[in-house]
Design brief:
Blueprint: E1 4-9, H1 12-20, E2 30-32, E3 45-46, H2 48-52, E4 71-73, H3 77-94, E5 100-104, E6 107-111, H4 116-119, H5 123-138, E7 142-147, H6 150-160, E8 168-171, H7 173-180, H8 194-202, H9 208-212, H10 216-223, H11 227-234, H12 242-247, E9 254-265, H13 267-287, E10 290-301, E11 309-319, H14 322-336, E12 343-351, E13 354-355, H15 367-387, H16 404-407, E14 410-411, E15 414-415
Length: 418
């Protein structure tokens, strides 16, 4: 029988900041947030001590009760990535990389099935050994879910491990049915969000037992092929393995980018940001030797004053040249965007991507000009890769309201360095 571990680094960002300050995360009030963005900024993480005081993760600074004194740590994404990479090195001490799947910066799945005899341990003993190694080496507390498949390991982590003194939860299919078939709410289970829960509740389905004993035709009518996952998971079954995940080859059919602006932007300033985003993504197309014939634009307005605008556009020909893509995006932007309402979110997408070799040359295009422009964009890309993203920028990136230079210093939209 297969044995999987799902390891999560407890309140990762906040714990790293406490360890860096030689403080105990379980006795220190600390939140990770960029207070320069105002009291409305979201806390990326709060220390375990703060959670014990009732402060929720992902809260906003102004939501923290005024009677609680706490440290505010500015996000340092590069530091967290370094810690995550170091933890991965610990996993490699015990397992081959082929049996490790990194799920997020602070979470990973480990297939320990073939290692238990080697180490003469059961899965719980091996989990304790790895968790102890993480704590002794980096001072970080981790929790772990153990299951006979990936799904059960994840659910054991999310639901069971929180209620054990050892920070370890265990599930097999029988334990799952016995202990969690009537667990509520459904959103506690992996891959069930509020939307899915609401749709299930309308069918008078309130827990995993209900899903397991509902006529499958009802579920397939409501969720289509995705009903198969709901039904399997309601019985604690999951056929996907780490090997399957690693062997999966995605069909790269689009390149997308979006950003939430730091403040409300007017029509012209947002237009400048759009131009920057198109430029960055057109370089990605050239780097990957891909071309597109369909683009999409999303514009979100401040405080949801009006509904979002934008749309999709089919291009005359497949292309990846910056000048062509810019012209199309500006045409779409100018024709669909409300010019009087402040803008806060912009998203761009290049769709229906194919290899540049698949392009049929057109007699109506200047191929020499296209080739020259692609060479320039590749040269820009090479400079950025060698010397940093801000080593070379366009003149528009220096204008008031431009965001590229600042965002190049961020990781995941947050501060990268000390």
């Amino acid at each position: 029988m297969s044995k999987y571990l799902c390891i999560d680094l407890k309140t990762f960002y906040a714990s790293v900041e406490c360890v860096e300050r030689k403080l105990d995360p379980f006795s220190t009030n600390l939140v990770v947030a960029d207070e320069t963005r105002g009291k409305g900024t979201i806390c990326l993480a709060v220390s375990p001590k703060m959670k014990m005081l009732g402060v929720k993760n992902r809260c906003r600074l102004y939501e923290i009760p005024p009677n609680i004194k706490y440290i505010i740590a500015k996000p340092r994404m590069k530091k967290y990535i370094e810690y995550s990479a170091n933890i991965y090195e610990i996993y490699l001490k015990y397992l081959s990389k082929d049996d490790i799947y990194v799920y997020s910066i602070d979470e990973a799945f480990l297939d320990v099935t073939n290692y238990l005899k080697l180490y003469k341990m059961d899965e719980i003993e091996l989990a304790k050994t790895i968790l102890k190694d993480i704590y002794n080496t980096y001072g970080l507390t981790a929790t772990v879910g153990i299951g006979t498949n990936l799904y059960l390991a994840k659910v054991a982590l999310d639901i069971m491990s929180k209620h054990t003194p050892t920070n370890i939860g265990y599930l097999d299919e029988e334990l799952y049915k016995r202990k969690l078939w009537h667990h509520k709410p459904l959103t506690d289970f992996w891959q069930i969000g509020r939307g899915i829960e609401a749709r299930l509740n309308k069918k008078r389905i309130y827990d995993m037992y209900d899903i397991a004993h509902t006529n499958p035709k009802i579920l397939y009518k409501e969720f289509g092929v995705n009903a198969e996952f709901l039904i399997d998971h309601s019985w604690g079954k999951e056929t996907c393995t780490i090997k399957d995940i690693k062997n999966y080859k995605t069909k790269n059919t689009s390149i997308s980018n979006s950003q939430v602006l730091f403040e409300d932007y007017n029509f012209e300033n947002a237009r400048l940001v759009l131009k920057e985003m198109v430029e960055l993504n057109s370089i990605k197309l050239v780097e990957k030797n891909l071309i597109t014939d369909t683009i999409s634009l999303y514009i979100g307005y401040s405080k949801n004053i009006i509904n979002s605008t934008g749309g999709s556009m089919k291009l005359a020909n497949y292309t990846n040249t910056y000048s062509d893509l810019m012209a199309y995006f500006l045409k779409l932007y100018d024709s669909t965007t409300n010019k009087t309402v402040p803008i806060r979110r912009i998203g761009v997408s290049f769709n229906r991507l194919v290899s540049n070799e698949a392009q049929q040359l057109s007699l109506f295009e200047n191929q020499e000009k296209i080739t020259k422009e692609r060479k320039i964009e590749l040269a820009i890309s090479n400079i950025k890769q060698k010397l940093g993203k801000n080593a070379i920028v366009r003149g528009m990136d220096l204008e008031n309201g431009a965001t590229t230079i600042l965002r190049n210093k961020l990781i995941g939209g947050h501060n990268a360095y000390d």
